[in-house]
Amino acid sequence: MKKCVFVSSLLFVLVGCQTVKTTDNTKTFYIDSTLADCVGVAPMKCMKIKQNQQADWELFYGTIQGFDYQPGYQYTLKVNQFDVVNPPADAPSLRYELVEIINKTKK
């Protein structure tokens, strides 16, 4: 009985420690061939992205897990977007993971 209570308690604690919740959101990102100057916590370089081809470029301050950006190439990516539960005040509330590189074109 003690073992069952312990295992149940441990399982409850581990489930409660989950920090990322999936939004089941797959997105297409268009990534420009050059980085732009931007300011986050300090001056840095940001990717320029669009979520549709007709939109203007927007600065992307975060990272895409599994994606290795190379200047001089435009990319079309499929990414998964996840909500980060209770992020620190200076951290993003969304996290992105690369699903696939749909296209990579030298510019």
Task: Give descriptors for this structure.
disordered N terminus, signal, 1 helix, 7 strands, single chain, mainly beta, DUF4377, 107 residues, DUF4377 domain-containing protein
Layout: helices, strands, pairs:
Elements: H1 2-16, E1 20-31, E2 36-39, E3 43-50, E4 58-60, E5 64-65, E6 73-84, E7 94-106
Parallel strand pairs: 5-7
Antiparallel strand pairs: 1-3, 1-6, 2-3, 3-4, 6-7
Task: Describe this structure as you would to a colleague.
The protein has one helix at residues 2-16; strands spanning 20-31, 36-39, 43-50, 58-60, 64-65, 73-84, 94-106. The chain is mainly beta. Strands 1, 2, 3, 4, 5, 6 and 7 form a seven-stranded mixed sheet that branches. The N and C termini lie far apart (66 Å). Residues 1-22 form the signal peptide. It comes from Providencia vermicola. Keywords: Signal.
